[in-house]
């Protein structure tokens, strides 16, 4: 029963964020208490509030690009595509990252955009 609950939680999370990171699935078995805490935080962060999930996803992409984390940029863009975020919206978010974090952040994002968001 617990496994089914976990699977449903991960499916619900995927609807919210577009793609569930692999480590979430690993936490379910390796560190179930940590998994529960992370899921509570995820729910709080990704629920619609003053900002929509799409807007939050664009912020996440810009932050990942600013941190120059190609894996995170790729994962966030894959999730964005599943949430209906357009390529034009991502490019605009990357321009903000460029303005505030410099050319490498923009390049990290642009390198992933064509691969992930066709």
Description:
With 118 residues, the protein is mainly alpha-helical. It has two domains: 2-46, no CATH class; 53-116, AhpD-like (Up-down Bundle). The chain contains seven helices and no strands. The chain has helices at 2-17, 22-30, 32-46, 53-66, 70-82, 87-101, 103-116. Helix 4 runs antiparallel to helix 5 (70-82), helix 4 (53-66) crosses helix 6 (87-101) and helix 4 (53-66) crosses helix 7 (103-116). The protein is elongated. It starts with a helix and ends with a helix.
Quickly list its features.
single chain; 118 residues; mainly alpha; AhpD-like; 2 domains; 7 helices; 0% strand; elongated
Low-confidence stretches: none
Task: Please write the CATH class name of the largest domain.
Answer: Mainly Alpha
| Number of H- or I-type helical stretches | 7
Distance between the termini: 39 Å
Approximate strand percentage? under 5%
Give the fraction of residues assigned to helices. over 70%
CATH architecture of the largest domain: Up-down Bundle
Which fold name fills CATH's third level, the topology of the largest domain? AhpD-like
Sheet having the most strands? none
- Overall structural domain count: 2
Alpha-carbon Rg, integer: 15 Å
CATH homologous superfamily identity of the largest domain: AhpD-like
Number of strands: 0
Shape: elongated
Q: Supply the helix-strand structural class.
A: mainly alpha
- The ordered string of helix (H) and strand (E) elements is HHHHHHH
| Mean residue pLDDT | 84
């Amino acid at each position: 029963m617990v496994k089914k609950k976990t699977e449903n939680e991960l499916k619900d999370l995927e609807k919210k964020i577009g793609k569930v990171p692999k480590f979430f699935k690993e936490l379910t078995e390796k560190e179930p208490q940590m998994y529960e805490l992370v899921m509570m935080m995820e729910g709080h962060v990704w629920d619609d509030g003053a900002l929509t999930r799409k807007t939050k996803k664009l912020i996440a992409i810009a932050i990942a690009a600013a941190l120059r984390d190609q894996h995170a940029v790729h994962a966030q863009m894959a999730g964005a595509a599943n949430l209906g975020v357009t390529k034009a919206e991502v490019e605009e978010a990357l321009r903000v990252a460029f303005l505030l974090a410099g050319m490498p952040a923009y390049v990290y994002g642009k390198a992933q955009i064509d691969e992930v968001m066709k």
